[in-house]
Design goal:
single chain, Growth Hormone, Chain: A
């Protein structure tokens, strides 16, 4: 039996049965639906849109076009590139502020929903705010005066998406047993990947490929086609987030009479962290190890598009096509990983996936001059390993979560992931600077993934469910 086999604890009873098939499917549909926010808003469409030429000062943009655009070097191109860099910088700072907010409030949100038995309520509220922010993005016209509005909405959406994920991840323990934790976690993550494929196909076929007018007679003026894609993502998320709120009962309150204030909640959080370090050292170390390698996993997505275009020569359309193919491969990987997880243990899946990522990353570094073929091969290999690492990390933590403390522990999981989220971007930039070329950034990401792998290998966790 694997070293991370399940052991029981009389202080934390484990239910003999999990959720029904209907409940499990309803839970997974939330990931299927809200993946639209992840792939359309934060990764491939809206985030790229608000740092595009639409939002560059009109005089700078006009001078750039008059001088010949990207194909002609000179002062006009330099000014335009500088303006785009400034937009990107502002988005980066806004996301950093949002990440800080998540790190500060995520564990307290989880703690309070555990105590009050309001996990589903807050999942609904947080998801609703994400959808509302996404709908509002439709009104961010492609003009400089709408840039601040776009950045604010993007930040709000990201913060509440992470808050919703705290509630959603903790809900896994309401529908899974120790024997099904891995496959159900993988099923939910896989549904998210396949949901992303459908939304990306709609975006590509309906509003990006070819010349306007697109579906419904929509054109490109003021970014209307991009804004339409974002609106579709909001509707998609709304439809598929409803089933989980209907099918799964509210969690049982652990302390229904308690009404801790904000300061008292943070004091309690501090005591819990000290308790973890003193009495559940392996949980503490897992939170640390996972924070490191999850930062590397996030960097694979954050810099994947940059590397695809700048190093391997993929066009914008080809990048979206790769995203579709990558989601498909990741979905296959995560379903397979979930099945393996329940047979050999979460840790082995995580370690194997991280090792695969490190090896593939090194291969891509040496294949940097291999063009689009090299990126498609190496990139798809990366996506195959990313999904199992993510899903089995959630399952691993679920096995260690005490009954009634799931939300708080998953809140800490979100917080630790954000607390050091600067490491991979910093190493990416450092390696690019030292190496003098963008492809050196691949090694920066590999270093982070390798560090997480080395921290993960010594763990010998005892599961309580």
């Amino acid at each position: 039996m694997s070293h991370d086999a399940v052991t029981s604890s009389p202080a934390t009873p484990v239910a003999a049965h999990g959720g029904t098939r209907k409940q499990i499917f309803a839970w997974a549909l939330w990931d299927w639906g809200t993946s639209a926010f992840s792939v359309i808003v934060t990764t491939f469409v809206f985030a790229r849109y608000i740092v595009s030429g639409y939002f560059v000062d009109t005089q700078v943009a006009d001078a750039y076009q008059a001088a010949g655009g990207a194909s002609v070097a000179g002062p006009a191109k330099d000014a335009y590139d500088s303006a785009v860099a400034d937009l990107t910088s502002w988005v980066g700072w806004a996301m950093a502020i949002g990440g800080l907010a998540i790190a500060l409030i995520a564990p307290v949100v989880g703690q309070r929903t555990d105590a009050g038995g309001r996990r589903k309520l807050w999942l609904g509220i947080n998801t609703g705010i994400v959808i509302a922010a996404t709908i509002a993005m439709f009104f961010v016209q492609g003009s400089p005066q709408f840039f601040v509005m776009g950045v604010v909405l993007l930040t709000i959406g990201n913060v509440f998406y992470e808050m919703a994920n705290v509630n959603y991840n903790a809900m896994l323990l309401q529908i899974a047993t120790p024997k099904t934790m891995g496959r159900i976690s993988g099923f939910g993550w896989g549904m998210g990947y396949f949901g992303g494929i459908f939304v990306l196909l709609i975006a590509l076929i309906g509003f990006i490929l070819g010349d306007p007018p697109y579906w419904f007679g929509i054109g490109t003026e003021l970014g209307m086609n991009i804004r339409a894609v974002v609106l579709i993502a909001a509707i998609w998320a709304l439809i598929f987030s409803i089933p989980v709120l209907v099918a799964i009962p509210e969690n049982k309150a652990t302390n229904p009479g308690a009404k801790l204030g904000i300061i008292a909640s943070y004091k309690k959080l501090g005591r819990e962290i000290v308790h973890l370090y003193r009495n559940q050292r392996q949980v503490f170390y897992f939170l640390l190890a996972s924070a490191v390698y999850r930062d590397g996993l996030a960097a694979v997505f954050a810099f994947g598009g940059i590397l695809a275009g700048a190093v391997f020569g993929l066009s914008d359309t080809a990048i979206i096509l790769f995203a579709i193919g990558g989601n498909l491969v990741a979905g296959i990987g995560v379903f397979l990983g979930g099945w393996i997880d329940d047979r050999v243990g979460s840790k082995r899946v995580i370690v194997g996936s991280l090792a695969g990522l490190v090896i593939t990353g090194v291969m891509l570094f040496f294949w940097h001059d291999g063009g689009t073929t090299a990126f498609w091969i190496g990139g798809l290999m990366l996506t195959f390993f990313v999904g199992p690492a993510q899903a089995s990390s959630r399952a691993f933590l679920g096995h260690m979560a005490p009954e009634g403390g799931e939300g708080e522990l998953f809140g800490l999981y979100a917080t630790t992931g954000r607390a050091i989220s600067f490491i991979a971007p910093a190493l990416f930039a450092l390696f690019v600077t030292l190496g003098g070329s963008t492809y050196w950034g691949i090694l920066g990401i590999v270093v982070v993934l390798l560090a997480g792998l080395l921290l993960m290998i010594p763990l010998r966790a005892k599961f309580i469910r």
